[in-house]
Amino acid sequence: MQLIESISKRHSPRSFDNKGIEQEKIELLIEAASWAPSAFNNQPWRFYVAEKNKNPEFYNNALNCLVDFNKSWAQTAPVLIITVVKTTYDHNNEANKFALHDLGLAIGNMMNQATVLNLFMHQMAGIKFDKFNKLLNLPQNMEPVSIIALGYLGKIEDLPAEIQKVENEKKRVRKPIEDILNYSPLK
Ligand SMILES: Cc1cc2nc3c(=O)[nH]c(=O)nc-3n(C[C@H](O)[C@H](O)[C@H](O)COP(=O)(O)O)c2cc1C
């Protein structure tokens, strides 16, 4: 038995090709996200797509919300996706404590679809939240969560020298299964 390819091939690169992404591929990624399950089927996820070529002003405003480290490499990505959650349920306006959980499921679907399309995504929480919270002019029950760099894989050599070093030294590691899998409560 082995992992499905969209899991084993996925990783979070910091170098992207500056080639834009076909509109139908962007829409397929959003459709993949939309098929995720969610509490009460509330689908609390929202996505704002900022494309360097098509909407440079929005793209630059999003880029400027990133902390400097992220900005230095994320600017190679042709597309930035801003993720947002609706924090209340549609049916009763009460707090939806699964909103972030469900956004994560939707992004997971999107990443699987991206990998199949040969696209790569790198999620970021390293954001200047004071700026970010004002970027989209959202109502009170909508919260911006993260920014995702999206694109085809680029060359590490095209990155600034200090990021090349980080990328070349990066190791993809995971906790061993026995640390995360339990068959009974802790004694
Ligand atoms: C919610 C979230 C926030 C992240 N924030 C950042 C970030 O600000 N900057 C960064 O370089 N990587 C960020 N990452 C990427 C993680 O460091 C990366 O997913 C992790 O090291 C595992 O590597 P892999 O995605 O290649 O498997 C973030 C990932 C997630 C899911």
Identify the notable features of this structure and list them briefly.
4-stranded antiparallel beta sheet; NADH Oxidase; globular; alpha+beta; 4 strands; 187 residues; 8 helices
**What is the CA–CA distance across the termini?**
32 Å
Question: Quick one: biggest sheet?
Answer: 4 strands, antiparallel
Q: Please identify the oligomeric state.
A: single chain
Integer-rounded radius of gyration = 18 Å
Number of domains: 1
Order of secondary-structure elements: HHEHHEHEHEHH
Based on the coordinates given, report the CATH architecture: 3-Layer(aba) Sandwich
Explain this structure to me?
The mean pLDDT is 97. This protein has a four-stranded antiparallel β-sheet with strand order 1-2-4-3. The radius of gyration is 18 Å and the shape is globular. The protein contains eight helices and four strands, in the order ααβααβαβαβαα. 37% of the residues lie in helices and 16% in strands. The protein is an alpha+beta fold. The two termini are 32 Å apart. The chain has one domain: 3-Layer(aba) Sandwich (NADH Oxidase). The protein binds flavin mononucleotide (FMN).
Task: Provide the fold topology.
Layout: H1 5-8, H2 23-34, E1 45-51, H3 56-63, H4 68-74, E2 79-86, H5 99-116, E3 120-124, H6 129-135, E4 142-151, H7 161-169, H8 177-180
Helix pairs in contact: 2-5
The structure holds flavin mononucleotide.
